[in-house]
Automatic annotation (TrEMBL):
Primary site of residence: membrane
Record key words, sorted: Disulfide bond, Glycoprotein, Immunoglobulin domain, Membrane, Signal
Signal peptide per UniProt: 1-25
Protein's name in the database: Ig-like domain-containing protein
Length: 253
């Protein structure tokens, strides 16, 4: 009966095999250690990147580089070269060695790619005339933005608008910027809003159009069926009634 014991300590891996029953135990030792330890890197967008990784010891081992969460082999060499990196190259990379009769040893490093802020959000957002409206954008990427600015036409935004900022933990540390419109008026629907974030690498912008949703004054029946206005995908909440309302999203006027 064979059993195996693996020890992991400071990057040195030991395996002990008990090849026979304990009475005549024979211990074999396998060692795998990192001769060149890969380092996490922070680089600027479009630069070339090289990660180094070298496992040493006995018996011989085969080495692969892959991106974490993706099994595609990027390199079988000690070095992993990435040319002109983009935002999509950022993430975790794994240098993995297969050591015969031992198993797999691996070391993980991260690549951070600095560039202009990445601004995202819903390109069409909704508000109701006369109520408080909100336009939201998310700003992500490294380095963090120095500034997030909302623009509408070429004017400075009046006191009717205020901006709130908060961190969003579910979005990898992105910043949520919310433009709050006090008392939405018709003209708010006429021109798009720009959410622009800036850091040392330049600006990132997103243009958001605000569309109007209506308010229904429903007649007082027990059950009311109504239909969606121009945008059947956007269901309206019944603002002026507590009666049950059935919405038929596929119909429109
Ligand atoms: C909003 O952004 C678009 C695209 O970047 C640009 O063409 C437009 O001039 C900007 N508008 C304002 C008001 O800054």
């Amino acid at each position: 009966m064979n059993s195996r014991l693996s020890l992991w300590s400071l990057g040195i891996h030991l395996a002990l095999w008990y090849c026979h029953l304990p009475a005549e135990a024979q211990v074999k030792k396998v060692r795998a250690s990192l001769l060149v330890e890969p380092r996490s890197l922070v680089v600027d967008i479009h630069s070339d990147v090289t990660f180094n990784c070298k496992w040493t010891g006995y018996p011989p081992r085969s080495l692969t580089w892959a991106k974490k969460g993706n099994n595609m082999v990027l390199s079988n060499k000690n070095q992993l070269h990435l040319k002109s990196v983009s935002r999509l190259d950022a993430g975790q990379y794994v240098c993995k060695a297969i050591v015969q009769r031992f198993g797999v040893v691996e070391k993980e490093v991260s690549l951070t790619v600095n560039g202009p802020p990445i601004v995202s959000g819903d390109p069409i957002q909704y508000a109701v005339t006369g109520e408080t409206g909100e336009v939201k954008c998310y700003v992500a990427g490294t380095p963090p933005p120095d500034k997030i600015v909302w623009k509408w036409r070429d004017d400075a935004l009046s006191e009717r608008y205020t901006v709130e900022q908060s961190k969003v933990h579910s979005q990898g540390g992105a910043v949520l910027s919310t433009l709050i419109i006090n008392n939405v008026v018709e003209s708010d629907f006429e021109s798009p809003f720009n959410c622009t974030a800036r850091n040392a690498f330049g600006p990132g912008t997103m243009t958001i159009t605000l569309e109007e949703t209506g308010t229904y004054h429903l007649p007082h029946h027990d059950y009311i069926s109504t239909i969606c206005p121009t945008r059947p995908t956007h269901l309206l909440r019944p603002y002026t009634t507590h009666l049950p309302v059935h919405l038929y999203p596929t119909l429109h006027l």
